[in-house]
Specification:
single chain, alpha/beta, Rossmann fold, AAA+_ATPase, ABC_transporter-like_CS, nucleotide-binding, ATP-binding
């Protein structure tokens, strides 16, 4: 589903990713674990086409996207949940969820929206509320819903549990676990894998922009 080969990225002349490599197979959930500043968000943004590569190759579903603009990812069924949520405060919940479809010039798919609401009934209950009025944890759920509205094949979830209350972190774990039965491929980043340990099929560790495969602890 995703293959990243020898990705190198520099920002303002400073190397951030160094020959980073990672593979995600269809229907698997993969963790990318690293301390703050290790390069997790840069890797996610690079996969999404939001950060320019210095060198390396990137392919999604066998299609090389090294030079492709960011919007091509959404059209390929890739959803992205950034660490800082990036909701539009003046839009209500449903408008934020549907935003990627509007950006692609596509009409909303009522069946897909119902599926998102069935998966997370709590956001359906405040669909008409402005994003500005929501708690940080509620905004995380809405950002996940926005990623899911287009993410039919691959989801990139950057620090989904960061800064949320334990109860909401547990709710996010439940939702992500439910996606395993949907055939989605998921890349999930965390500073450690305390929350995600039972969700992962494969684990990678990133340190100073370099990625290594790690062994998952036995259940």
């Amino acid at each position: 589903m995703l293959e990243a080969r020898n990705l190198s990225v520099s920002i303002a002349g400073t190397p951030i990713l160094r020959n980073a490599a990672l593979t995600i197979e269809r229907g698997t959930t993969v963790g990318l674990i690293g301390r703050n500043g290790a390069g997790k968000t840069t890797f996610m943004r690079t996969v999404m086409g939001l950060q320019k590569l210095s060198s390396g190759q990137l392919a999604i579903q066998g299609k090389y996207l090294t030079e492709a603009p960011a919007h091509t990812r959404a059209a390929m069924g890739v959803g992205y949940m950034p660490e800082d949520r990036r909701l539009i405060p003046e839009f209500n919940v449903e408008e934020n969820i549907l935003l990627p479809l509007y950006a692609l010039g596509q009409k909303p798919d009522p069946a897909r929206l119902r599926w998102v609401y069935d998966l997370m009934p709590e956001i359906a209950r405040f669909a008409d509320r402005k994003a500005l009025s929501l708690s940080g944890g509620q905004q995380k759920l809405v950002a996940l819903g926005r990623a899911l509205i287009v993410g039919r094949n691959l989801l990139l979830l950057d620090e989904p549990f960061e800064g949320v209350a334990p109860a909401l972190a547990q709710r996010l774990i439940e939702v992500i676990a439910a996606l395993r039965g949907e055939g989605l491929s998921v890349l999930l980043s965390e500073s450690d894998h305390v929350h995600s340990s039972k969700l992962l099929d494969r684990l990678y560790v990133i340190e100073r922009g370099e990625i290594e495969r790690a062994q998952l602890a036995a259940a």
